[in-house]
């Protein structure tokens, strides 16, 4: 099978350590939300709430097997004026990448009417352990295969993370001839058909969630995120800040 991947890169050291700490603290005190199958906060999953000041929309937390929880920041750079620490993070990342991007990529629909279904392009997401896989299977962030201008920029926000804790990012090769037979992926109970021809992961690329790492990949790249192995202390979640960006036009 031909090993073909879109552009995928990782960068260490372009975000200042002080900014890293400020981002982590900022995330700890935000309101996180879920729409899918919420349960009462009094449930046994309360122990997974990441910090004492975190709140869940409508006092609810996610079930253990459905999806990421998310924290939304904005649709464009102007929105980040309300979140100066996230704005500082974006400016440092973009500067480290040559200031070639703007927050104008394909949006992420959070499927939550309480959030007015805005077209979110800057948000954080996270997962706790393999009890909450938080993955929607192999997918693309950009479905237009002719659009080579969009990228997703992930920032690994954790102050500490170790190899045995898992949570790697997996980028699958394209499989245009359908040789693996994996072309009919369903998302569990949602039966959401992706219909992508997915190649074997060992012929693709894996990037570890190294703290303070920046990962930049073409929005068309097939990918997902492995769930954390659940070996980290329960109060530590794997958090990422996501920027849906686009290369600036000359």
What does this structure look like?
This protein has 250 residues and is mainly beta. It has a single domain (8-247), classed as Jelly Rolls. It has two helices and 16 strands. The protein has helices at residues 17-28, 84-96; strands at 8-11, 31-32, 39-40, 55-56, 60-61, 69-74, 101-102, 108-109, 119-120, 122-127, 150-156, 169-172, 205-207, 214-218, 222-225, 238-247. The strands form five sheets. Strands 1, 6, 7, 10, 11, 14 and 16 form a seven-stranded antiparallel β-sheet that branches. Helix 1 (17-28) packs antiparallel against helix 2.
List its traits.
single chain, 10% helix, 250 residues, 2 helices, Jelly Rolls, mainly beta, 25% strand, seven-stranded antiparallel sheet, three-stranded antiparallel sheet
| Architecture (CATH level 2) name | Sandwich
CATH top level label: Mainly Beta
Gap between N and C termini, in Å?
A: 37 Å
Find the count of extended strands (DSSP E, 2+ residues). 16
Number of DSSP helical runs: 2
Strand content: 25-35%
Biggest sheet overview: 7 strands, antiparallel
Strand and helix order? EHEEEEEHEEEEEEEEEE
Element layout with pairings:
Layout: E1 8-11, H1 17-28, E2 31-32, E3 39-40, E4 55-56, E5 60-61, E6 69-74, H2 84-96, E7 101-102, E8 108-109, E9 119-120, E10 122-127, E11 150-156, E12 169-172, E13 205-207, E14 214-218, E15 222-225, E16 238-247
Parallel strand pairs: 2-4
Antiparallel strand pairs: 1-14, 3-5, 6-10, 7-16, 8-9, 10-16, 11-14, 11-16, 12-13, 12-15
Helix pairs in contact: 1-2
In short:
The chain is built from two helices and 16 strands.
